[in-house]
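Office hours follow-up: a student asked to see two folded examples consecutively, so here they are.
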Amino acid sequence: MSMKRGPDQFHDTFREKVASLIQAKQAGETVENAEPAPKPTGAVDLMEALRASVDRVRSPKDTKTEKSPRPHEPVAAPGRAARRSRRA
């Protein structure tokens, strides 16, 4: 679904707003300030959360947790172990 568009099909509203502000100031009109930035919503910054997660994984563990005596080993399906023992 590719559409060919030319430069004449784009409409630059930002440029129009800036031009109208300039004209208003030149005419001596009072120009309203922009709206203040919206207040934080409490949404999580995903990049900061990712960095914190990576830092936790890379840093040595200071908390004492119960450790397993050996690392987890992959468990084979029950049928596969039986087949392997017959071949040996």
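And the second, which I mentioned at the end of office hours:
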Amino acid sequence: MAAEVGHKSAPYTLDSPQSANRSYYDPPRHKGGLFAPVEVLVAENERGPGATITYVLPSSLIVIEENPPLLEAAKALDEKLNALIAKATS
């Protein structure tokens, strides 16, 4: 359930089987699956046209222990998310 923020907002869950990395979902070695797929919040600006997109970089949530292969995969997901947000806002 979304909290009332005084203007329209919508949470979105972004998931793609093609870009999913098996290590995100491979417990107990990797606990990062809790934070995959990625979520973003799109909120209408309170004053004026447009919207604000809020998200947390996946690598900051997925990699919670020393794990170079998982960090590499999560950083690649960061890049894809940043590119998607840039395309959506241009």
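Two things to take away from it. Residues 9-89 form one domain. The helical segments are 58-62, 68-89.
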